[in-house]
Amino acid sequence: MRAHRHPAARVALGLLIPILLLALWQAQAEVGGARALAFVPLASIAAAFAELAASGQLLTDAVTTTSRALTGLVLGASAGVLLGIAMGLFRSVDRLIGPLYHAIRQVPLLGWLPLIGLWVGNGEAAKLLIVGLAAFYPTVLNTYEGIVHAERRNTDVGALFGFSRAQLLRHVLLPGALPLILTGLSQAIAFAWIATIGTELLLGAGAGLGATMSLAQAQQRMDVILVAIAITGLIGFTLNTLFARLRGHLLRWQPAIA
Amino acid sequence: MTSNLSRIGFGLAPLVALLLLWQAASAAGLFPPQVLVAPADVVAALLAMWRNGELVAHLSISLTRLLIGFGLGAAAGLAFGTALALSRLAEALFGPLFQALRQVPVLAFLPMLVLLLGIEERFKIVVVAIAAFFPVALAAFDGVRGVPRSHFEVAKLYRTPLLPFLGRILLPAATPPVLTGLRIGLTRAWLVLIACELLAAGSGIGQMMEMARQLFRIDVVLAGVFVSGLIGFLLDRGVKLIERRTLRWKAA
Amino acid sequence: MNVTTLFDTPAAASPPIDGALTIAGLSKDFTVGGRSLPVLDGIDLVVRPGEFVSIVGPSGCGKSTLLRLVAGLDTDFAGEIRLDGKRITGTDLDRGLIFQDHRLFPWMTLEENVGLALLNSSIPKAQRARIVAEHIALLNLAGFEKAYPHQLSGGMAQRGAIARALVTEPKLLLLDEPLGALDALTRIHVQTELQRIWLRQRSTMLMVTHDVEEAVYLSDRVIIMGAKPGRIRRIVDIDLPHPRERSLPQLHRLRDEILAELIQPVPTPGEPENLVRLPVREAM
Ligand SMILES: Nc1ncnc2c1ncn2[C@@H]1O[C@H](COP(=O)(O)OP(=O)(O)OP(=O)(O)O)[C@@H](O)[C@H]1O
Ligand SMILES: [Mg+2]
């Protein structure tokens, strides 16, 4: 039996478990009683989706959360790339900032929230700070590695043509580090997305998918929560996919790995 | 040996300098105490909580949650990832669902799990387990899939039974990537546990920090930041040590 | 294009006035594991302007090291290296170097790679594109300007590296086994191209090679180096006009002579103890 080799059979097999789980869920919902609160019927999830979509709340939430994630990402990642370059180029910066960076990085990201809450409150600034930090860590590390481990064979060519430090950075070090920088950025996207949802959940208040989930939890609206989870996964997936495309385009000079 | 020590000393110098600067600035009254307290005050808070047993209590409850949750999640992840890598049928059945769920940040599951499980102990353990599950399952899958075909062929040739095959051939070959996955899983689990405790708990390091925030006890908050960072560091370092050990054994 | 017409009149090039390389008392040590390891010891060499000189010698005798020193990539040495009387203290566009591997930047197209060499040259920006195109055509790479290195064959990439080295019109071109990575057929083809270009540009050439036939075919002189530490053992003059026929019997005789010299170590007067190397002593 090699049924699972067939493309159509693969799709069917892939759908089997999710459908089974949904059926199980629906069955639980129909049992009623205390369980009905958690296991809402599938129909009411669909209704919740329609309601949220129609009222425009879903769109507002999605846009708010996404733009928050992207803002933090841009801020944190650009700071991260700059610091990574500085640490990679200058030993003194590396020695001075390196230990501090590694010490701060050990604290679980959301562990900063109480402190940041005391400093800047629970508003937008606190959220952006955490999201930015999430994007900052992996970009620093990967940029630094890329610059420091620049291949001698490439820097020699730069020396041969009398490149200045700036020319070496622009034409040799940065392009050479690009694959790693992009790896750092793709991690940054994932972390920034997690951090955005996390801060919205923990700080509640305001618009955003996390805040909506938090409110829905208080109101025991499982249907709304499930819709928000699905949208969260979808946006995260879209961001990753778009970035993978961009990465492929920027690294088109690399021979195919296949 | 000495050069190693002196290198570490040199690396720590900027940190120590920063601490001294911070202490001096606080002593000079540069920050109002509700914004930043001196490092000495943080140490004092740590010591006080250590002596009255508060810190140990919070720490041990957090670490217990981490241990149980991570243990369950990692074990499930290992089994799941290995099964998916070995059986094409299992991959066809569970692969798509796994890939879809993986897109959702674990934190996004918190509200759902609160409604399903309440906010008692089992909620935190399940969340930690989920956080550990995904990276470990992924690493186990990649690790086992990465085992060279020739290993399987040798096993087939000698008709190696399943258990010795798993233990003698598969495990050693897949260990390095799996250890990396375990390390990532452990870090994730710790992060998510702190988040959980911040959100809803009666005890634990996260709850200690959240309470302190509400009471404007910045010294305790900073102590919590320090302790959670230290634990994160030790966990990461511990698995890295094991990784290095295993790699050395592998090379020998 | 007038590039091709240039090929047809190689003899028209006037004799070069500069590109004279003088190496005097050159020594170089590397520190390996805390111990000093002599790699080059007392190298004296004069290369005339426009001369083509090849270096052959056993692996590890310091040929690449010598070229790196002349290129200015490594300035930590004893002795003197001068180009047209000017002491070499670092890299400069008057010296070009071609490595054994092409070393084109993978993230740039062929055109960008060749153009990059002109980044700091005095050639006006407006003319650069034309010069780059000319050199790409010179090495028969026209049509591949927009290709990335991984889209080129090994021989094409190596020719690209030659184009990049030539584009700055260096007075002295250093070549470190430039054709080593090529298959026999491509190799012969690029050798011919190299000779044509040299006859046209008349820059001084200093080439390291393991292929004695190649050395004999292209060079005015062949330098035979010995190892541990690297020294010049013998210099063989190839007094034949260019361009040469490959089948020339004199070339074959010279090749056999040099090969024999390379295979059978000849004692250097005054150091007979270097001759007999017992395995026991090696182990110590
Ligand atoms: N950066 C370095 N550090 C230490 N030793 C080096 C270094 N570069 C070269 N050497 C040593 O110097 C010696 C000469 O090396 P070099 O590369 O010049 O040899 P070569 O004649 O070009 O050999 P081949 O024909 O194999 O290319 C070798 O023994 C090598 O081990
Ligand atoms: Mg060499």
Give the SSE layout.
The complex is a heterotrimer of chains A (258), B (252) and C (284).
Chain A: H1 7-31, H2 35-38, H3 42-55, H4 57-89, H5 91-105, H6 113-120, H7 124-148, H8 152-160, H9 165-203, H10 209-218, H11 222-250
Helix pairs in contact in A: 3-11, 4-5, 4-7, 4-9, 6-7, 7-9, 8-9, 9-10, 9-11, 10-11
Chain B: H1 2-27, H2 39-51, H3 54-86, H4 88-102, H5 110-117, H6 121-145, H7 149-157, H8 162-199, H9 205-214, H10 218-251
Chain C: H1 2-8, E1 21-32, E2 35-47, E3 52-56, H2 63-71, E4 78-83, E5 86-87, E6 95-98, H3 110-116, H4 125-138, H5 154-166, E7 172-176, H6 184-201, E8 204-208, H7 212-218, E9 221-226, E10 231-237, H8 249-263, H9 279-283
Helix pairs in contact in C: 3-4, 3-5, 4-5, 7-8
Bound molecules: adenosine-5'-triphosphate and magnesium ion.
Residues 30, 32, 39, 59-65 of chain C line the site of adenosine-5'-triphosphate.
Family (chain B): Belongs to the binding-protein-dependent transport system permease family.
GO biological process, one term (chain B): alkanesulfonate transmembrane transport
InterPro entries (chain B): MetI-like, MetI-like_sf
